[in-house]
Specification:
- By secondary structure, this protein is an alpha/beta fold.
- It is built from 15 helices and eleven strands.
- The chain folds into two domains: 220 residues, Type I PLP-dependent aspartate aminotransferase-like (Major domain) (Aspartate Aminotransferase, domain 2), CATH 3.40.640.10; 151 residues, Aspartate Aminotransferase, domain 1 (Alpha-Beta Complex).
- Strands 1-7-6-5-4-2-3 form a seven-stranded mixed β-sheet, sandwiched between helices. Strands 8-9-11-10 form a four-stranded antiparallel β-sheet.
- Helix 5 links the parallel strand 2 and strand 3.
- Helix 3 runs parallel beside helix 10 and helix 11 crosses helix 15.
Length: 413
Amino acid sequence: MKRKTDKQATLAVHAGDRKKLGEFTPTTTPIYATSSFFYESSEDLEKVFNDEKEGNVYSRYGNPTVSAFEDQVAVLEGADYAVATASGMAAIHMAVLGGLLDRRKSIVAADVLYGQTTALLQKVFEPFGVETRYADPCDLAAFEATVVKAQPGCIIVESISNPLLRVPALDKIADIAQRHGAQLIVDATFTTPVLSRPLELGVDIVVHSATKYLSGHGDTMGGIILGRQDTYPTINYLRKTIGPNASPFDSYLAMRGVKTLSLRMEKQCRNAALVARQLAECSAIERVYFPGNPDHPDYETCVRLFPEGLFGAMVSFDLAGGRERVLAFLDALEMTVPATSLGDVQSMALYPAMSSHRDLAPKHRQRLGIGDGLVRLSVGIEDASDIIGDIVQAVERSETVVAQSATDQRSGS
């Protein structure tokens, strides 16, 4: 793309594409389903191996389709590089390895993270002698005190926490990390480059689950790591050595999804605000978690760091009645999909205690504020009135189901 622009919607459509192939240029990057490449001379091949000449030699080292997707997201994030992986967890794993490789084998992490990320730290890294301490990144004083005590090699937080939707001040967390010589890794899956570009706030490494908002259609899996040039040699070495590569097919689908990211994200954020407002009026809902609510503890941080009027497309809420009521609610949904993902064009509901955070002990979940009645809602691009109508009717029907169950139990006894 020759015309210079900094507009996300335009960059998403054009970045990464338009690579000339001989006498023609494809409008969309094709799928290069090949494991290896060769050249007219062995001398050319050696130059590519030595990074003296642009090209590909082996798809674990790089593939044109994967590279196009990486270029596309790097432009959106304002990153110097991107490395695509087979899943979001592969991206987190490799980012943490990179953060510890030449640093102290100690981690400070946000106290509330995606459940599998916590499991990775506790069940994979800790057995190898890597200690993780947890602290609330929205309490800056307490968080820095933990960093001072632990002296970590890296710090891990989420741009919007999963599933309680807290929003740390990433610029201030970055200052803490820099003062204490730690590499800051941010999982920005919930915000995407549309809401936040963490590298511009001083963050070292940004990670996305490309399965979610970036691809946006529930038809592919992937992850991506982004950063400044100083972190590239380590991440690229790990890519070549460990081999967590994204496939050309998944990269093609993810790249197609990113082209509409700005449109989808803006629509989903605005829908989420309407849904959150309506849920607050439901008597059966004890609490609504949404960063765009003025009473949200991180509302001012959102106003300061996010684009005007956009607060993310996730809404969580506590449903009275606990586990039985939540399961009845999920079964009563008619349009919203009760599936274990988020960020798709369709609205999706998830029960963290059963899925995203099931590996955490019940007492641990309760300490974190993830109660038995917590539901996480990923708001889609449908008409907001249809989303609201479906959620409200499911809340009402779930009450009837639970009441009937209680009646049946009493009569049976």
